[in-house]
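Field reference: sequence -> structure
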Amino acid sequence: MKHWTEGFDDDDADESLVRPYTITGGRTVPERDDLTLITLVTAISEVSSEHGLRRMQPEHRTILALCKRPLAVAEVASALNLPVSVTKILIGDLLGAGQLRARPPLAFAQAGGLPGMKILEAVRDGLRNL
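Structure field:
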């Protein structure tokens, strides 16, 4: 998939670009506030009628293909070569349609959402050693 700015040349004004707001239907803010960079998303295997797939944006279909195994939101954005904010909107569409499942990373979910002191101290010590 090409990035929306790929091939852009200042001298070539006829080059058509698909801007991110076009991909999201004009939306600029994700509807969900629980999607972070490290939220894991996975496609639901028993999903997708052929009719539903035809109505989706190509980016939606790419996300479903990528998320056959769990990926972080940041990894999906990188693979799509789109801004994270745009990717969150697209992922939110698929979550709302029941095509994806999202969950926080296990380490944080099991620890009640906060990292342990040992982890924080290890990070601090590692940064000091740099």
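Note: The helical segments are 20-23, 50-54, 58-66, 73-80, 84-96, 106-110, 117-129.
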